[in-house]
């Protein structure tokens, strides 16, 4: 009761937020991560150690810029959760410093960038695997600082999906960089008085998610009509495309004792990326459209024909530009998704990675995604407004077949700084986005982030145990290598 008395109720969670909240309460999906490599200003270093106090002023700036960072969720386990704001925040709850020497990977041989990425992988996997219950007084986010030398560190922003999507993680890092460069000295006071700024409206309130009768009735009719009627009418219980031979492996499952995330990282150099982007422009395609072709070819190379005759892909879409008052600098949950079925590619040595047919497919996907991103009408996320019982619905998904084979999330190009005096303050370089295992989601997630003028990083994540027998890490590593090889060959061709 005391906790309730110290809280300021803000607003009820929207339907999209409720989906994220219940998924987290059940443990099916844990922390979302956006990480960036930071370089310290010339006037300071970590030689005398790093402490949470170093980041307190910057976190105050972030909390002031993003109202959702000062909120937690009340009654999260119910069908009527609310966002509430504590009277004070203790910033010590939101900063975690990792000593690299304590990591298992630290004992392995090697130095340089590859070794540092292995250290980061260990930190990210541990965070993805940690349960993330909603605290009555502590908002569900933190930064995890991994010092790499006296002059650089990885800073991981770990947060609940109820408090933001992938674009939100980039917005946080933009604010964090500003805060670091605007603060001249550490702050020993961990107590922060949150702003009284109201939350942004829900996705449903920010945009008109109109659902036509034909769109809404299609899955309803497929559920209740006999198969001999629904099949000729091309009605499916799911709005995603489907095929008997699609790659989907075991049904959705969740065991809290064994549920964990696997993770692999692929780095694409700026030189290769620049040539690939030029090729996309020449073929009337965007990078995401091409990446689908690269991913399908990689999966076709690694996954046997007996396991996968085709692949159904999910592509999240950012709806901010269609919502009044929302920008990419705002933290919120503003995503819907598009779905597409891709046939398996027969891969032969010496073939072009992306031939004329593949470029046409990449261009068609680009146009399809652009069309879906131009409207809020008949978006899958809009159907959530007709769902009343999220717990019952999610529990009912266990044991059912997965709707999609893989997810490709591309948060596009990130430019966090408008500074003209680069080299004098904190700098932000390589950027990564990573999703946790998703008990109700795709078998494999490809998460893409690109630092403007720098590298593109692809993280591959999956729920351990769902990719079949054998060494899953080796299998995903091969997929990642094929993605890297494919993009390199596109640049050469």
UniProtKB/TrEMBL annotation:
Domain of life of the native organism = Eukaryota
SUPFAM superfamilies assigned:
CoA-dependent acyltransferases
| Pfam families hit by this protein | AATase (PF07247)
Record GO terms (molecular function): N-acetyltransferase activity
Q: Which InterPro entries match?
A: Alcohol_O-acetyltransferase, Atf2/Sli1-like, CAT-like_dom_sf
Name the UniProt record assigns to this protein: Alcohol acetyltransferase
Recall the taxonomic lineage recorded for the source organism. Answer: Eukaryota, Fungi, Dikarya, Ascomycota, Pezizomycotina
């Amino acid at each position: 009761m005391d906790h309730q008395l110290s809280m300021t109720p803000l607003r009820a969670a929207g339907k999209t937020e409720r989906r994220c909240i219940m998924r987290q309460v059940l443990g099916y999906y844990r922390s979302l991560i956006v990480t960036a490599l930071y370089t310290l200003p010339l006037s300071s270093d970590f030689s005398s150690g790093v402490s949470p106090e170093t980041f307190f002023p910057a976190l105050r700036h972030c909390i002031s810029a993003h109202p959702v960072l000062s909120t937690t969720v009340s009654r999260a386990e119910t069908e009527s959760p609310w966002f509430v704001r504590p009277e004070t925040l203790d910033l010590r709850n939101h900063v975690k410093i990792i000593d690299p020497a304590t990591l298992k990977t630290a004992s392995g041989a090697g130095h340089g960038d590859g070794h540092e990425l292995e250290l980061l992988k260990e930190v990210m996997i541990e965070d993805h695997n940690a349960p993330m219950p909603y605290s009555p007084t502590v908002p569900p986010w933190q930064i995890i600082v991994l010092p790499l030398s006296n002059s650089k560190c990885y800073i991981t922003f770990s947060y609940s999906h109820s408090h933001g999507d992938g674009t939100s993680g980039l917005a946080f890092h933009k604010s964090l960089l500003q805060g670091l460069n605007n603060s001249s000295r550490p702050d020993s006071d961990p107590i922060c008085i949150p702003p009284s700024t109201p939350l942004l409206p829900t996705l449903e309130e920010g945009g008109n998610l109109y659902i036509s009768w034909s769109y809404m009735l299609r899955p309803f009719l497929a559920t209740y009509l006999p198969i001999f009627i629904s099949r000729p009418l091309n009605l499916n219980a799911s709005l995603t495309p489907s095929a008997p031979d699609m790659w989907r492996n075991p049904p959705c499952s969740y065991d809290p004792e064994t549920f964990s995330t696997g993770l692999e990282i692929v780095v694409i150099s700026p030189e290769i990326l620049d040539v690939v982007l030029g090729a996309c422009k020449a073929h009337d395609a965007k990078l995401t459209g091409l990446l689908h072709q690269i991913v399908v070819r990689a999966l076709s190379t690694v996954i046997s024909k007996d396991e996968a005759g085709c692949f159904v892909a999910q592509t999240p879409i950012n709806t901010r530009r269609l919502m009044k008052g929302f920008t990419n600098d705002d933290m919120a949950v503003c995503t819907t998704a598009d779905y597409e079925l891709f046939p398996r590619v027969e891969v032969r040595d010496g073939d072009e990675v992306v031939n004329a047919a593949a470029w046409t497919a990449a261009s068609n996907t680009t146009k399809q995604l652009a069309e879906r991103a131009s409207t809020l009408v008949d978006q899958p996320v809009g159907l959530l407004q007709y769902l009343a019982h999220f717990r019952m619905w999610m529990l009912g998904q266990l044991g059912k077949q997965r709707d999609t084979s893989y997810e490709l999330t591309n948060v596009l190009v990130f430019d966090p700084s408008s500074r003209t005096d680069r080299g004098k303050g904190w700098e932000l370089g390589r950027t990564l986005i990573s999703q946790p295992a998703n008990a109700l989601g795709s078998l494999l997630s490809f998460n893409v982030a690109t630092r403007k003028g720098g590298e593109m990083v692809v993280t591959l994540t999956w729920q351990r145990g769902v990719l079949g027998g054998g060494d899953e890490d080796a299998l995903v590593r091969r997929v990642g290598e094929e993605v890297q090889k494919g993009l390199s060959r596109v640049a050469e061709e």
